[in-house]
Amino acid sequence: MKKLSKPHPNQPAFDWETPSPTLTAKLRMVEIPHDENLPLESQAVFVAEDMWVPIAVVNGNVHILPGVPRLFERLLEHLRPSLLPRLVNPEGKGIYRYLFSTPLPESAVAPYLTDLAARTASRGVKVGSYPRWQKKRNTVTLVGTDQEFLESLVKEVEENVQGTRVTQEDELDTLSDNEEFSQ
């Protein structure tokens, strides 16, 4: 940041070496999550030599990009080569995500989903459950690369979560669902 940023016209006297509230604010802009047990290069990816902004990587799979649209777009474009292989498996198949809307609370479907996850893990299926705050319906997901196998699970999942496969999680919400949820 120090090397690549240019002085702002409204801060001509800014100095990187003199402690000040402005320096503190600039340095805060470069703070990212950091795990001292991991190599820095696996946590901060600099994808463009002319940009001081890194992409922060947490747990190897969460990428934190800046909120400034122009920076976000440039960094995402440079990140594309490392993201695309994650979206297509070695056989050239894409990743499929199936959504199920259920009226049941997460605690009611958890035992079934735990069993389903254990039974399908060897086939690369990830099972998720996502409560929807103050909504009457929750979302269950299946993610995997074998579309035919995922399709074979639809009826079973619908029956066991008393739900319906949907294309977006709010698809079965009604106007009354927007009212405050009471327990």
Descriptive account of the structure:
The structure is a single chain. The protein is α+β, with helices and mostly antiparallel strands and 183 residues long. The protein folds into 2 domains: 32-87, no CATH class; 96-178, Alpha-Beta Plaits, CATH 3.30.70. Helices cover 31% and strands 17% of the residues. It has 4 helices and 7 strands, in the order H-E-E-E-H-E-H-E-E-H-E. It is elongated and about 65 Å long. The N and C termini lie far apart (50 Å).
Write the layout of secondary structure elements.
Blueprint: H1 21-28, E1 44-45, E2 55-58, E3 62-64, H2 69-87, E4 96-102, H3 106-120, E5 126-130, E6 138-144, H4 147-160, E7 164-166
Summarize this entry quickly.
The chain has helices at residues 21-28, 69-87, 106-120, 147-160, and strands at residues 44-45, 55-58, 62-64, 96-102, 126-130, 138-144, 164-166. It is α+β, with helices and mostly antiparallel strands and 183 residues long.
Give me some keywords for this one.
alpha+beta, Alpha-Beta Plaits, FLAD1_M, three-stranded antiparallel sheet, disordered C terminus, 4 helices
Number of strands: 7
Kindly report how far apart the N and C termini lie: 50 Å
Number of helices: 4
CATH superfamily of the largest domain: ACT domain
Given the helix and strand composition, which structural class is it? alpha+beta
